[in-house]
Specification:
It holds the Pfam family HTH_20. The protein is α+β, with helices and mostly antiparallel strands. Helices cover 45% and strands 18% of the residues. The protein folds into two domains: 71 residues, Orthogonal Bundle (Arc Repressor Mutant, subunit A); 138 residues, Trafficking protein particle complex subunit 3 (Muramoyl-pentapeptide Carboxypeptidase, domain 2). Strand 3 and strand 4 form a beta hairpin. The chain starts with 10 loop residues before the first helix and ends with a strand.
């Protein structure tokens, strides 16, 4: 007789309380919802809700549904929570995104050239894309609209992507960002040079896309358990 399986970890332990709150709200609706509808329900910004929803899609907890429209207009994207049992029942498909990430990180680390620089470029491209999704006006080629608090915007966006972050100003031209929760942690411990270079590039791409007068001067990986420090400095 098979021994009972242990209960899976609570979603709040998987990816933080904010994202777990979005998932719980979507499950409570028992049907599809847009990012704007969930944002209104939770009292947050639609772009913040969308970042969490996209991360939940990547993790397999949520699926997207494109709205069928019979009138002119851009179809809206709806999100639906996956049943707790889907894909997790005995004999069901086993998914391992961590395994895929480890394979890709290992491959990138052995490619010709500078693996860290290639990882930075990959992260930078994703960061620019994340900024475009936060401000859809940029998708049409619009100029970046500088935010008066670009360091705060960086921290908010990182947190929405699963990097729990805290900003500490260190003078008029410098700031420190403490990242205390990393969605790449398990892979980063095995491939720190590649994975942390992706993280740095992601921050650089976000700052570039919003026209920030800041640059990432340094990234100190794993100064403590699940704790990295990014040093920001005013460009020029």
């Amino acid at each position: 007789m098979d021994s009972p399986r242990p209960d899976p970890p609570d979603e709040g332990e998987r990816f933080g309380p904010s994202r777990a709150r979005v998932l719980d709200a979507l499950r409570d609706r028992a049907g599809p919802a847009t990012a704007a509808e969930l944002a209104a329900q939770l009292g947050t910004h639609p772009n913040t809700a969308r970042f969490h929803l996209e991360a939940l899609c990547a993790a397999g907890f949520v699926v997207r549904q494109r709205e069928d429209r019979i009138v002119p207009g851009r179809p809206r994207t709806h999100y639906v929570a996956v049943s707790r049992g889907d894909g997790r029942r005995r004999g069901g498909p086993q998914r391992s995104y961590r395994l895929l990430a480890e394979i890709l990180a290992a491959h990138l680390g052995t490619t010709a050239g500078d693996p860290s620089e290639a990882a930075v470029q990959a992260g930078r491209a994703f960061g620019r894309d994340a900024a475009s999704r936060r401000d859809p006006g940029r998708e049409a080629g619009g100029d970046p609209r500088p935010d008066p608090d670009t360091a705060g915007l960086l921290v908010e966006t990182l947190s929405g992507l699963g990097f729990a972050s805290q900003l500490t100003p260190e003078g008029p031209d410098r700031a420190r960002v403490d990242v205390t929760s990393c969605p790449f942690l398990e892979v980063a411990t095995q491939h720190v040079d590649v994975v942390c270079a992706v993280h740095r590039g992601l921050m650089e791409g976000l700052l570039e896309a919003v026209g920030a007068p800041l640059r990432v001067a340094a990234l100190e990986p794993l100064v403590g358990p699940s704790h990295c420090v990014a040093r920001l400095q005013r460009a020029g």
